[in-house]
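dude i think i finally got it to work??
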Amino acid sequence: MDRRTLLSGGGVLLAAQLLPGEAGARAKSSPATADDARFMQLAIDQAKEGDYPFGAVIVRGGRVLAFGRNSSKRNADPTAHAEMMAIRAFLNGHEPEAFKETTLYTSGEPCVMCMGAIVWCGIKRVVFAASIAQLATRIGQIDISARQIANATPFASIDITGGLLSGDAMRLFPNGKP
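look at this
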């Protein structure tokens, strides 16, 4: 059986794309910078004001361009995650092309929906505090990481830095799942 025959089954292809570290992976990793901690603290501060403790900021060139906090209860909108709210706020004052060279800082690793939006917007870097695995110990989560989404994206390369100030972010959640 040749490779084309083997991969013609969509499930095999999808599974291969979702495996981290596979050839053609689009997620890159970089260490946190000194400025990253400052911007992450701003995201965590936003989380303290959200309906659920999630906050995000979008930064370019050392300047904060948009803030977001989870507003799903007050907006009666289950898509009003912090990252989505920051993206919407950004678009209120900028053209979509302005996402190039931006970094999105978020108190929790982006969920599948938010990471999909990040990819489609063309945001080049994501820095998160608490991981999906950490968050799953306190609140329901879909067990697909931001890196898995990025690795399944053949048309974009995204730099992902995780775990920055994760303890601070996790302290915003009560112990145990609701």
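Residues 1-23 have pLDDT under 50 and may be disordered.
im so relieved honestly
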